[in-house]
Write a structure and sequence with these properties.
73% of the residues lie in helices and 0% in strands. Among the domains are: 34 residues; 60 residues, no CATH class; 90 residues, Orthogonal Bundle (Non-ribosomal Peptide Synthetase Peptidyl Carrier Protein, Chain A). With 373 residues, it is mainly alpha-helical. It has 11 helices and no strands.
Length: 373
């Protein structure tokens, strides 16, 4: 028994030793493998770092090359810009000098038939102060632009176009300023301008109503005229919207006004077109109703004419029968004497009737009116 236990102890000790040896072998093997892996990983990391550094060096080289190229291009472009600026400044200076010379002296070209150009000209206008100065200025701007006038020629043309009370404005302008366009325009604006009447035009526009017999076209034209005077500085879309509203408010016929307002038009032309269409349709409908009523009246009139003819025939028959009855009545004896009035040709009843007739006539006749003095 003891021997068996000792053997078991020995066997266990041997097993422990074998396990420790095996653990030591495994540990040493694992340590060696881990060392190898670490060495391999470190070598890979070093290689990757070397590759990264090389890539960074290449990127730096490319970046430097690109920056050098950009600097070269910028230098070239800046040089070209400076050259162009200098040339443009020189050209602008030459043009300004030539323009000042052209404004100070008249332009005279030699009459060369090969270079002659016949430009169409528009006759200048006249202004007497009775018409709108704004309209005259607009027309004059068109004429001057078409004729190609400079400011000096414009000033002389305005001076030559003034008539009547408008020409009296020149008396307040110094002689050396009669060729200055701005001075002449300011004097005309101060004397005949209507910019200070803006509030008056706006009030007139608000109170404008269609007159009896006035057409919608005339009304729209007047509204457009007042809009140009009252809201000259407003944007075009705002002016169009306001003109449409004022036009609808000014329409005299309530049905046309209501129908046009419901359309919610955005400009004056659309409002005018729709109101004219509605007015024409309304007129056509009214005409057709009148035609139908005339046809109905014709039918009833025929019936009335037939009844009237029938009545006339009945009256004619009665009149004829009355006349025939008088003819058949026996004539009285002219030798008969009335015992009441002692006259011949009638009897007492006739005398009584003759006596009553004046009294009845007096009872029913109205007194004559007195003459007023």
């Amino acid at each position: 028994m003891r021997k068996g236990q000792e053997k078991m102890r020995k066997g266990q000790e041997e097993m422990r030793k074998g396990q420790e040896e095996m653990k030591n072998q495994i540990k040493s093997h694992v340590d060696s493998k881990v060392g190898e892996i670490k060495d391999h990983v470190s070598s890979c990391i070093e290689k990757i770092e070397e590759d990264v550094q090389s890539v960074k060096r290449e990127i730096g080289d490319v970046k430097g090359e690109v920056e050098r190229k950009i600097e070269e291009v910028e230098d070239k472009v800046q040089g070209k810009i400076e050259e162009v600026k200098e040339k443009v400044q020189v050209k602008i200076g030459d043009l300004e000098k030539r323009l000042s010379e052209l404004e100070d002296r008249p332009i005279i070209f030699p009459a060369n038939p090969d270079l002659t150009y016949s430009r169409p000209t528009v006759k200048s206008l006249t202004f007497d102060g009775q018409t709108s100065s704004t309209v005259f200025k607009t027309q004059f701007d068109v004429v001057s632009s078409e004729n190609g006038w400079n400011n000096r020629v414009k000033a002389s043309q305005i001076v030559a176009s003034l008539r009547g009370t408008a020409a009296e404005v020149l008396q307040g302008i110094p002689s050396d300023k009669l060729t200055d366009l701005m001075t002449i325009e300011n004097a005309l604006e101060a004397r005949f301008g209507d910019s200070h009447l803006t509030q008056l035009y706006r009030t007139e526009l608000k109170t404008r109503r269609q007159k009896p017999g006035e057409s919608l076209q005339v009304l729209a034209a007047d509204v457009e005229r007042l809009m140009s005077l009252a809201y000259a500085e407003c944007p075009q879309d705002v002016r169009d919207s306001l003109a449409a509203q004022y036009f609808v408010d000014a329409i005299r016929d309530e049905d046309t006004q209501h129908a046009t307002r419901l359309m919610d038009t955005k400009d004056l032309k659309s409002a005018l077109a729709y109101s004219m269409k509605y007015e024409a349709a309304k007129t056509v409908s009214k005409t057709s109703r009148n035609v139908r009523s005339i046809e109905v009246e014709d039918g009833t009139g025929k019936e009335k004419d037939e009844k009237f003819d029938c009545l006339l025939k009945t009256l004619e028959k009665l009149l004829n029968s009355h006349v025939a009855g008088k003819k058949n009545t026996p004539r009285r004896n002219p030798n008969v004497t009335c015992w009441k009035c002692n006259k011949k040709g009638h009897v007492q009843t006739v005398a009584d009737f003759n006596d009553m007739r004046p009294q009845a006539q007096n009872d029913f006749e109205a007194p004559l009116p007195r003459k007023l003095y």
